[in-house]
Write a sequence for this structure.
């Protein structure tokens, strides 16, 4: 998701999602475009009470390489923003109005034993990843980039969280691997 696991858990535990939904303005003075096909990211924004449209970035993530995870997730989120902005310009999707349009893009990777792991490319790779985490730990690095399309201003940040795993039984691994969004 676009929030770190630590922050998402904290938000869930404290009921902040409900509070955020109550505090979210009903008549926003800005539009939101979520530049992601991630169901988890959609759910976070929806749970906070925001209305938004969704546009996938359709970039070749493997063509963007960085030596460290923090630089990689920011570069990927920025590349997603650029790709979507390019599509918006060619389709005149941005109409002239007084409301700002915010584009939110994000990326997340895991770092396991010093190796950056991106989305698994197959169910077998997903199974290997999950099995390797069993009883161990991994670092999750996520980024969020918000671009004000109306004003041309962009801000981004990354967050790093350590995740510790109990032993993961094979039946749980099977269930996770067969879950529809494991490769998305």
């Amino acid at each position: 998701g676009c929030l770190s696991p630590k922050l998402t858990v904290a938000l869930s535990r404290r009921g902040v999602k409900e509070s955020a939904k109550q505090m979210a303005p009903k008549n926003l003075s800005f539009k939101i475009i979520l530049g992601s096909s991630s169901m988890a990211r959609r759910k976070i924004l929806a749970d906070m009470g925001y209305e938004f449209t969704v546009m996938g970035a359709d970039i070749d993530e493997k063509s963007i390489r960085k030596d460290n995870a923090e630089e990689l997730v920011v570069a990927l989120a920025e590349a997603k923003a650029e790709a979507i902005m390019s599509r918006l310009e060619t389709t005149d999707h941005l109409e002239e109005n007084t409301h700002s349009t915010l584009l939110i893009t994000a990326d997340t990777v895991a770092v396991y034993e010093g190796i950056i792991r991106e989305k698994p490319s197959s169910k077998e790779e997903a199974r290997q990843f999950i099995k390797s985490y069993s009883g161990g730990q991994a670092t999750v690095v996520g980024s969020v980039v918000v671009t004000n399309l109306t004003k041309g201003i962009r801000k981004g940040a990354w967050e790093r969280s350590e995740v510790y795993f109990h032993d993961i039984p094979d039946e749980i691994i099977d269930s996770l691997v067969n879950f529809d969004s494991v490769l998305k």
Q: What stands out?
A: Residues 1-24 have pLDDT under 50 and may be disordered. Helices lie at 5-13, 16-23, 39-47, 69-91, 123-133, 170-178. DSSP finds six helices and six strands in the chain. The radius of gyration is 18 Å.
